[in-house]
Automatic annotation (TrEMBL):
The keyword Signal applies. InterPro entries: Amidohydro-rel, Metal-dep_hydrolase_composite, Metal_Hydrolase, Metallo-dep_Hydrolase. The keyword Signal applies. Keywords: Signal. GO terms for molecular function: hydrolase activity, acting on carbon-nitrogen (but not peptide) bonds. Gene3D superfamilies: Metal-dependent hydrolases, Urease, subunit C, domain 1. This is Imidazolonepropionase. Residues 1-20 form the signal peptide.
Length: 433
């Protein structure tokens, strides 16, 4: 009987650990005034407030500073003495919630058949029940840009907050941009070492033909947008109307100098609000990008350089070079599960020329500005959403950063995730508790 009891107890503990995430619910709307005091507050715009206090109510920041008066009645006050407060981190360029297991096709819902699909909306495929989402919150990432992939014009992205029942609840800014994946303007050789299947110029010629087809689509869409009425509604042209009045951005995914020049030409030809995504060679043409006011989302800085004659640490240094040139940029880790390492990517940029506060801005305020949500979030300022993270140490340092509290629009969200559950499960299994 005793053995049976112990077996049931062990099974219950394992079952509870495995299924605990299903009983973690999205937090309800914030009600009542909350204050966090005695912390080092990193505003996100370069300013640091020592021994500061931040207050928020109904999802908005109401007070912040070193001398904030806290009312005596009807408030919640948390003393986070010795800890650090940051704006919620923002992960741009992600397929979070659009895929769960890369090798299982049924869990992948981020691309559509065909080359020109601007009417595809990533937001309606966003799965708020993804087990990956909680692992991002644990590292302080509270917002993400959900991006479609595949083809040339893959569709529209949206920004989501990472504590929601469904995609409607998650939507923070819908259809903020259209994504153009520019074909690589580089000759391609045979991967088996033999001669190329054809002259290198043929690959570039084919790529230029695809770029021309996208430009032709934009010309037709422009004519459609200018027309007073239409005999029939064209969903693809309707989807890009916002590009012409600049209520939407065109995110152009490209890396090489030639591709960046083409992206700049597209911005000038159509007067689009263009953002470069990737931007490996952006450091080589900072003057062109600055002149045309084109921001850059640097993707996966923990990588090798594209060109053999580049410095091996060039991807680490690019952020500092863009900062010095006065170009608006942010940092992304691409993918979905990889995004949990976003703060540490920014930390690497901080070790290669950026100050810590500049590195923080690269994953908070800069990202918010580029994604079109800078008026709502990205920094800790009165009137902005209370997207707040509390950490025991430097959030950019994986050794010292332990997130103790996180708030999305003033709602304290759960920091439970699958990683923690499995950690506890196997501690129990091997008698380490």
């Amino acid at each position: 009987m005793k053995k049976l009891f112990l077996y049931i107890l062990g099974f219950t503990a394992s079952y509870t650990s495995l299924h605990a995430q299903e009983t973690v619910y999205p937090a309800p709307a914030q009600k009542g005034l909350v204050f966090l005091k005695n912390a080092t507050i990193h505003v996100g715009n370069g300013q640091v407030i020592n021994n500061g206090t931040i207050g928020f109510n109904n999802g908005k920041i109401t007070a912040i500073g070193a001398d904030v008066a806290i009312p005596a009645d009807d408030v919640k006050v948390f003393d986070v003495n010795g800890q650090h407060i940051y704006p919620g981190l923002i992960a741009p360029e992600s397929n979070l919630g659009l895929t769960e297991v890369e090798s299982v096709r049924a869990t992948n819902d981020f691309s559509e058949v065909g080359e020109i699909n601007p009417s595809v909306r990533s937001i309606v495929s966003y799965n708020t029940d993804s087990k990956i989402i909680a692992t991002l919150r644990t590292n302080g990432i509270l917002l993400a840009q959900v991006v479609p992939q595949g083809g040339l014009l893959s569709g529209s992205s949206s920004v989501v907050q990472l504590d929601a029942w469904n995609w409607e609840d998650a939507a923070y800014k819908t259809d903020n941009g259209i994504h153009f994946y520019m074909p690589r303007l580089m000759p391609r050789g045979n991967p088996f070492g033999a001669a190329a299947a054809g002259p290198g110029s043929d690959a570039i010629k084919a790529a230029m033909a695809e770029i021309a087809s996208v430009k032709a689509f934009f010309q037709e869409a422009k004519a459609y947008a200018l027309a007073q009425k239409h005999d029939a509604v064209n969903l693809k042209y309707e989807a890009v109307k916002g590009l012409f009045d600049r209520t939407q951005k065109l995110f152009i995914h490209c890396d090489l100098v030639k591709e960046l020049v083409v992206a700049t030409d597209i911005a000038k030809e159509f007067n689009f609000d263009v953002v470069i995504v990737g931007g490996t060679d952006a450091w080589l043409i900072t003057d062109v990008l600055k002149q045309n006011n084109i921001p850059v989302i640097l993707t996966q800085p923990h990588s090798l350089p594209v060109m053999q004659d580049d410095d091996v640490d060039q991807p680490y240094k690019t952020a500092a070079q863009l900062q010095k040139a006065g170009i608006l940029f942010c940092i992304s880790n691409e993918g979905f599960w990889q995004q949990r390492n976003l703060p540490f990517n920014a930390g690497t940029a901080g070790a290669y020329g950026l100050s810590k506060e500049e590195a923080l801005s690269a994953i908070t305020l800069n990202a918010a500005k580029i994604l079109g949500i800078g008026e709502k979030t990205g920094s800790l300022e009165v009137g902005k959403d209370a997207n707040i993270v509390v950490s025991t140490g430097d959030i950019l340092d994986m050794k010292s950063s332990v997130i103790t509290k996180a708030y999305i629009q003033g709602r304290e969200v759960s920091l439970e995730d699958k990683h923690k559950q499995l950690y506890e499960r196997y501690k129990y299994k091997y008698g380490l508790k």
